């Protein structure tokens, strides 16, 4: 591991199981979308049986850390293309004592590392870039624009590593691209079966969506879940502060 200048880092308390996380001051920093992806993804881990997971585009590892804090039965391979972010990801694995259950890989979703290509996973999760390179807001950071792989690249890569007939994929995405997520899933043999919209308030349109799909040839039905309202303080407190026990799925 290269030496990382501590002046370039901030240290955050993740508010779960005592886990902490370094982030790059000038890099992509995790937000509500990452927290919701971890919550949504962890809901598909049932019981105490071991679950092998892959995160694509892990950045410094927030979603991986939050899932690991929720579910002790998981082992996670986390892939990140940016060398600095991947270095911080490795630092966060060590900081939280996760060396036995989490492995960081520096690599591109368009050309997965050999160790990842050799594996199949029970669950693949991702927070891909929300914006196309030509359409993102001028304030969008590199991690938010499709500079190192587009949405289709992420979903294709994830689908290729899912266990056939049972592997699950979870994605958080800006609401305006929900149709693309489901199309690319379908194109790669992953059938959407859970859909949740995320709204800033009851009277506001959706800003994000959480979508789950399964690698299966069996018939599936898409279930539209109750929307998640971000200004519902009690609901959001449950997501942020408590283990997810109401089994909405």
Task: Characterize this entry briefly.
The chain has a single domain (6-180), classed as Rossmann fold, CATH 3.40.50.150. It has seven helices and eleven strands. The protein has helices at 32-42, 62-70, 83-95, 114-117, 151-161, 178-187, 233-241; strands at residues 9-13, 20-24, 51-56, 74-80, 102-106, 123-126, 168-174, 190-199, 208-215, 223-224, 228-229.
Written account of the structure:
With 249 residues, the protein is α/β, with parallel strands linked by helices. Helix content is 27%, strand content 24%. The N and C termini lie far apart (40 Å).
Structural class: alpha/beta
Shape: globular
Low-confidence stretches: 136-140, 243-249
> Helical percent range?
25-40%
Helical run tally: 7
Cα end-to-end separation: 40 Å
The averaged pLDDT comes out at 89
Spatial extent as radius of gyration: 17 Å
Biggest β-sheet, characterized?
9 strands, mixed
Order of helices and strands: EEHEHEHEHEHEHEEEEH
What is the total number of structural domains? 1
The CATH architecture: 3-Layer(aba) Sandwich
Number of E-type strands: 11
Key descriptive features of the protein:
Rossmann fold; 9-stranded mixed β-sheet; globular; disordered C terminus
List the topology elements.
Blueprint: E1 9-13, E2 20-24, H1 32-42, E3 51-56, H2 62-70, E4 74-80, H3 83-95, E5 102-106, H4 114-117, E6 123-126, H5 151-161, E7 168-174, H6 178-187, E8 190-199, E9 208-215, E10 223-224, E11 228-229, H7 233-241
Parallel strand pairs: 3-4, 3-6, 4-5, 6-7, 8-10, 8-11
Antiparallel strand pairs: 1-2, 7-9, 8-9
Helix pairs in contact: 1-2, 5-6
């Amino acid at each position: 591991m290269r030496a990382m200048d501590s002046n370039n880092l901030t240290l955050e308390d993740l508010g779960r199981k005592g886990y902490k996380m370094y982030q790059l001051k000038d890099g992509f920093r995790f937000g509500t979308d990452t927290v919701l992806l971890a919550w949504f993804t962890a809901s598909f881990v049932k019981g105490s049986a071991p679950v092998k997971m892959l995160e694509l585009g892990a950045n410094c590892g927030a979603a991986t850390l939050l899932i690991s804090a929720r579910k002790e039965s998981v082992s996670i391979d986390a892939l990140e293309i940016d060398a600095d972010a991947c270095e911080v990801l490795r630092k966060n694995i060590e900081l939280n004592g996760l060396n036995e259950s989490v492995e960081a890989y520096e690599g591109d979703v368009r050309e997965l590392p050999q160790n990842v290509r050799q594996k199949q996973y029970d669950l693949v999760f991702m927070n891909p870039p929300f914006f196309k390179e030509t359409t993102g807001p001028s304030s969008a950071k590199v991690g938010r624009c499709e500079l190192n792989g587009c949405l289709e690249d992420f979903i294709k890569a994830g689908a290729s590593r899912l266990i056939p007939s049972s592997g699950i994929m979870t994605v958080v995405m800006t609401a305006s691209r929900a149709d693309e997520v489901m199309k690319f899933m379908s194109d790669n043999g992953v059938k959407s079966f859970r859909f949740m919209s995320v709204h800033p308030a009851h009277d506001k349109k959706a800003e994000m969506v959480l979508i789950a799909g399964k690698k299966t040839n069996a018939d599936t039905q898409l279930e539209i879940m109750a929307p998640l309202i971000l200004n519902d303080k009690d609901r959001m407190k449950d997501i942020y502060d408590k283990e997810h026990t109401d089994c909405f799925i």
